[in-house]
Design goal:
- The protein is α/β, with parallel strands linked by helices.
- The chain is built from 4 helices and 3 strands; from the N terminus they run αββαβαα.
């Protein structure tokens, strides 16, 4: 149920210390205040959260990103305007952010300027 779904969100973040992991993209995750961040050492992290999400906490995601930034190579937090936890109202924004971030972290394509500006602003 709900508890198992929340654990899955956290598993991806906790598995970041695997030597094959270069980065993490967490979309509307459940990241409580006591969630560890040390395992993100040297990784790139993108956390995106809808500003109308009523299932998981955008504030907790932002706070996690702030704590993680001390350990990561790069840590970005983006608030997706006018979208909910389901990520369907502005699905193309979620898709572009995730794809561009993953391709850059993997060294396959440079970050498009448009996405770089969104990341710098922290608002999409």
């Amino acid at each position: 149920g709900d508890r198992r779904r929340r654990r899955r969100h956290r598993l991806a973040v906790r598995a970041a210390d695997d030597k094959q992991v270069r980065g993490i993209v967490a979309l509307a995750p459940w990241l409580p205040a006591n969630e560890p961040v040390e395992q993100l050492q040297g990784r790139s992290v993108l956390i995106a959260h809808g500003d109308r999400d009523r299932v998981t906490s955008r504030r907790a995601s932002r706070q996690f990103a702030q704590r993680a930034a001390r350990f990561t190579t790069r840590c970005d937090f983006v608030s997706v305007r006018r979208d909910t936890h389901a990520m369907v109202l502005r699905w193309s924004v979620w898709h572009r952010l995730t794809t561009a971030y993953a391709l850059e972290v993997l060294g396959l394509e440079p970050m498009p300027e448009r996405i770089s500006r969104l990341l710098a602003r922290g608002i999409a």
